[in-house]
Amino acid sequence: NFKNWDDKNSVRIQKVFRGYMMRKYYFKRMQERLIKNFREDKCARVIQREWKIFNFQRQMKRDAKERRDIACTRIQKFMRGFSVFNSCGAQRTMASMAALQKSLRSTSRRNRAAKIIQKRFRKIRSRMRK
Question: In 48, 102, 115, 121, which residue has its Cα 20 to 30 A from 93's Cα atom?
Fold first, then answer.
């Protein structure tokens, strides 16, 4: 539930997601540039610029509302996956990452991966509360 999050955090989620998509679809040189500038302010601008180019090239023809809904759920799922990567051991991290990458290919896999990530995310949250 992202209702209580301020604008700064929602922008951060979008940047994380854009960065993930960028690393997935662009060349090694671009990856190196992102990794090099990852902790600097200009990294966000690089990601945003390349994300716009990427979207333009794909020429998404979906209805605007449908596209927005898909983007929201994708960002939420990715953020959960991102939390899982940061909090769990190496083995779980690799499993979650593989599940997330497969999730972008087909609907059934996406749903399966979302369940895996949600399950792990709940475990992390319950541990944090204790």
Answer: 48
Distance CA 96, CA 84 (A): 7
- HEC assignment per residue over 11-73: HHHHHHHHHHHHHHHCCHHHHHHHHHCCCCCHHHHHHHHHHHHHHHHHCCCCCHHHHHHHHHH
For the segment 59-106, what is each residue's pLDDT rounded down to a tens digit?
555 555 565 555 556 656 556 655 555 555 545 555 655 655 555 566
Residues 85 and 122 in one domain: yes
Select from 49, 62, 54, 66 the least CA-distant residue to 24: 54
Same domain, 43 and 89: no
Alpha-carbon distances of 38 from 23, 42, 94, rounded to whole Å:
12, 8, 21
CA 85 to chain centre: 11
Domain with 114 in it: 63-130
Q: State whether 70 and 52 are in the same domain.
A: no
